[in-house]
Amino acid sequence: MYNNKVRYIGRLTRDVELRTSRAGKAYANFTIAVSLPKDMAHTDESGRDADFFNCIAFGRNAELLSEHTHKGSRILVEGAQHEDRYTAKDGTKVYGTKLYTEEIGLLDPKPQTAAHTPNKPTNQMTAEEFQEALIAYGEDDEEEAFYDGSIFDDSALDFT
What we know:
By secondary structure, the chain is mainly beta. It is built from 2 helices and 6 strands.
C-alpha cells in the first residue's frame, strides 16, 4: 500500500526553469508557497503566513509547467514527499524535503481570447482544451498530466 501521497495548492515563487538530465530527460525544480489557515498565520515570530515546499517535476509535467506558468501562477501538485540528503561541496551534510510530483493542475484563469464565451468558466482550461494542449505537445499515455475537469476555488474554504 502506498501511503506517501500529498496534494498542495499554491503559487509558484519563481519562474519554472526547464532543465535536461545527463540522460536527456526533462525536469524542473520549483517552489510553491501554500497559504496557512487564518488561525495559524502570524503565530510565530517570523510573521509568516505561508509554507514553502520544494518540488520537482519530470518529463511532460516539467515541460508543461515551464511553458504555461510563471512566477505567481496558481497550481495544484500531487505526489510523494521525500527526504533529500546530500553532502555539500564544503563537506557539510544537508537535509531537506522535496515533493516529487506525479500530477499537476494549472489553476490560473486562461487568457481571454476572441472566442471566449461569457457562460464558460474562466478560471482554468476546460478538459477538452487541456487534452488538446497535451496532444499538441505530444503527450503520450504513460505521462499523463493531472486535470479532472473540475473547478477548484480554495477561497470558498473556511479554515477557521
